[in-house]
Design a protein that fits this description.
Structural class: mainly alpha
Low-confidence stretches: 1-5, 478-502
Helix content: over 70%
Organism: Streptomyces malaysiensis subsp. samsunensis
InterPro entries: EmrB-like, MFS, MFS_dom, MFS_trans_sf, Sugar_transporter_CS
Subcellular location: Cell membrane
Distance between the termini: 12 Å
GO biological process, one term: response to antibiotic
Shape: globular
Order of helices and strands: HHHHHHHHHHHHHHHHHH
Largest sheet: none
Oligomer: single chain
Protein name: MFS transporter
């Protein structure tokens, strides 16, 4: 192992503050606009057919360019990419907040996605190369995992507060101070080992195939939600995505300097992490959407009250990640945290299948949120750490990008899949109960709730599947001498980041 790998940066904990702040900004931006969208639509006169693009433009750019962003981080250096991503994200947010029409707003959202794709993988890979001691790494990834898991719920809270008490434009402007503070902090305290860069030539065919393939996949699920799964455009997009991504794999196996070295995803630990995280996000993002509508439309909560109703879940995620996951990561194999964590989350989700028109928040929704948060936080922490398990330093950026890619694609799939299930169940319930309905409004609400619970049942099954994958594929070994969990897999090279003892 090179001597440089043993260097311990004395300012690494200060750096974590600014890296975590940047990650929070990116993650919460995926949901903060959701609550503000009705106000923005009314203010700018956005047509109903175009409003989904406020969300989709961000998802397409972010999800499609993440692997490219990770490779750029390896090539340019993570610190430089991190700072460029922050400045670009702040500029795009300023444009979005000042938007005068639909095109300006959609363009700003796409730009946010572009710079988010630079920022997210560089943030995670900075942690991978800065925190080398197993116990310290566990703590650092505990914080990062809590933010990655809870940022979406924080976005709902912040979006509600800003929309209700200020203006929808502040859901964009709020990113600017976040970014400025993170840039100043990054310049002052972040130091990156120069030896960890990958100066290989950029794989242009890989960039084109990966970006177009992922965009087609994410857009396909978006169209499935609105047009149906059998629509010509939907099917065509899925076929195109399959062909492009298959071509990407073939190209990556043959070029000298691939965009995504197949060794990064071939390792069973990392592959298990990517798959289980994607499934967990599928369940979580659908739940956020359903419970937001349930509390505002069925329960009559205000945007602020709805946002704060999610707060116990955020608290659960932080507790699970920093107090359970981080403390146990160096003592037990990761699968014994990830598997049970996803199962506990599925129990919380199971409680939420029981919601009805008159469900009490304290007796049912609150315990469901707490269990969901605790489980997800406990599972996310080792997942984030294992995402760069055994990778060579020069691959840290693209390995980190795969985490964000699995989350982003999982979020797009979850929203489309569970929304489609909910809509179908709602329609069927309304038809079958129309004859005996005493009130059209009551039938409408009851049908809506039935649709939500039907989709949440699917989310329970998806979380159980995530647990099964984590338990069977993630095989990082037992702790050795009270130290890190011993790794396994063919991705661990002699000059690998000293994440875990081999």
């Amino acid at each position: 192992m090179p001597e440089t790998a043993q260097y311990v940066d004395p300012r690494r904990w200060k750096a974590l503050i600014f890296i975590a702040l940047a990650q929070l900004m990116v993650v919460l931006d995926a949901t903060i606009v959701n609550i503000a969208l009705p106000s923005a639509q009314a203010d700018l006169g956005i047509a109903d057919g175009n409003r989904q693009w406020v969300i989709t433009a961000y998802a397409l750019a972010f999800g499609g360019l993440l692997l490219f962003g990770g490779r750029i981080a390896d090539l340019w250096g993570r610190k430089q990419t991190f700072i460029v991503g922050l400045l670009g994200f702040a500029a795009a947010s300023a444009i979005g907040g000042a938007a005068l029409n639909t095109g300006m707003l959609l363009g700003a959202r796409a730009l946010q996605g572009v710079f988010g794709a630079l920022l997210a993988p560089s943030a995670l890979s900075l942690l991978a190369v800065m925190f080398t001691d197993p116990k310290e790494r566990a703590k650092a990834f505990g914080v990062f995992g809590a933010i990655a898991g809870g940022g979406g719920a924080v976005g709902l809270i912040l979006g509600g507060v800003l929309t209700e008490y200020m203006d929808w434009r502040w859901t964009f402007f709020v990113n600017i101070p976040f970014a400025i503070i993170a840039v100043v902090g990054a310049v002052a305290v972040i130091r990156e080992p120069v030896e960890s860069r990958n100066s290989s030539r950029l794989d242009i065919p890989g960039v084109i195939l990966a970006t177009t393939g992922l965009v087609a996949l994410v857009y396909g699920f978006t169209r499935a939600e609105s047009d149906g799964w059998t629509a010509g455009l939907t099917v065509g997009l899925f076929i195109a995505a399959a062909v492009l991504l298959l071509a990407f794999v073939i190209v990556e196996s043959r070029v000298k300097a691939p965009l995504l070295p197949l060794r990064v995803v071939a390792d069973r630990n990392r592959g298990g992490v990517y798959a289980s995280l994607a499934l967990a996000i599928i369940g979580m993002f659908g739940l956020f959407l359903f419970l937001t509508y349930y509390m505002q439309i069925v329960k009559g909560y205000s945007p602020v009250k709805t946002g704060f109703a999610f707060l116990p879940m955020v608290a659960g995620m932080i507790t699970g990640s920093t107090q359970i996951g981080a403390r146990l990561m160096t003592r037990v194999p990761a699968r014994r945290l990830m598997g049970p964590g996803f199962l506990v989350a599925s129990v919380g989700m199971l409680l939420l299948t029981q919601i009805d028109l008159d469900t009490s928040y304290p007796t049912l929704i609150l315990p469901g949120f707490l269990l969901l948060g605790l489980g997800m936080g406990t599972a996310f922490m080792p997942a984030m750490s294992l995402a760069t398990h055994g990778v060579e330093p020069r691959d840290a950026g693209v390995a980190s990008a795969m985490v964000n890619t699995s989350q982003q694609v999982g979020g797009a799939i979850g929203t489309a899949l569970l929304n489609t299930i909910a809509a179908s169940a709602t329609t069927e319930y309304a038809k079958s109960h129309a004859a005996g309905a005493t009130s059209r409004k009551a039938l409408e609400l009851q049908s809506m709730v039935h649709g939500y619970t039907s989709a949440i049942w699917w989310a329970v099954g998806i979380l159980v599947l995530a647990a099964v994958i984590a338990i069977t594929l993630v095989n990082a070994g037992q702790p050795e001498n009270g130290g890190a969990v011993a790794g396994s897999g063919d991705g661990a090279a002699e000059d690998a980041i000293p994440v875990m003892a081999h």
